[in-house]
Design brief:
The structure is a single chain. By secondary structure, this protein is mostly beta strands. It has a single domain, classed as Electron Transport, Fmn-binding Protein, Chain A (Pnp Oxidase, Chain A). It is built from three helices and twelve strands; from the N terminus they run βββββαβααββββββ. A seven-stranded antiparallel β-sheet has the order 3-2-6-9-10-5-4. The chain has a three-stranded antiparallel β-sheet with strand order 1-11-12, with no helix packed on it. β9 and β10 form a beta hairpin. The protein starts with 18 loop residues before the first strand and ends in a 13-residue tail after the last strand. The relative contact order is 0.20.
């Protein structure tokens, strides 16, 4: 057995990474804003619910609260700088889409746009906001999915030959997957 260090006090709680990076966006009458997010998860198949955790300090928190909707845009490893820009800079200070331009497209059902260069995007109608510690969980019902052709196989599994998703390791470090490590493992 390998010896383990046990910590009961820690400055950073990031031992669960890597997580895929998504840019979370929303639009009000005044502003469109996006932020990088690694704290997100599917919550239900039926209905299809997706959750994102956002600090009350974030401008996106306020935009989603007002818009009552949001988009979840998953990006590639080659877009790490975009993630850093949209994650470390605040919409309180300036309009991020002006300073860090991205190509946006209208959503099919909601008013908030999706990011053209994302390999998959979710349109979500806000269902609930619940506080957990220093973050709020925004739960959205997925109303539409924008999927790049050949990014997923027939079963809906990511195609690692065509997409290298951006993964966040914490503390501004990023990584991606190795397509050679793909294994379809079934229990015996």
């Amino acid at each position: 057995m390998t010896q383990k260090t046990i910590k009961t006090q820690f400055a950073k709680f990031q031992y669960f990474y890597p997580y895929t990076v998504a840019l979370i966006g929303a639009k009000t009458q005044e502003r469109t804003n996006f932020m990088s997010c690694a704290w997100h998860s599917a919550l239900s198949f039926d209905p299809p619910l997706f959750g994102v955790l956002i600090s009350k300090k974030r401008f996106t928190h306020h935009v989603i609260e007002e818009a009552k909707e949001f988009t979840v845009n998953f990006i590639r490893a080659e877009q790490a700088m975009l993630s850093a820009q949209y994650g470390r800079k605040s919409g309180f200070d300036f309009v991020k889409t002006d300073k860090f331009p991205i190509k946006l497209s209208p959503s099919r059902i909601i008013q908030s746009p999706v990011i053209d260069d994302a390999y998959v995007c979710f349109e979500c109608r806000l269902e609930e906001i619940r506080t957990y510690g220093d973050h709020d969980l925004f739960v959205g019902e997925v109303l539409a999915i924008h999927q790049e052709e050949n990014s997923f196989n027939e079963q809906g599994v990511l195609n690692p030959q065509n997409v290298r998703p951006l993964l966040y390791l914490g503390s501004d470090f990023y990584i991606t997957i190795d397509s050679d490590s793909l294994a379809h493992v079934l229990p015996k």
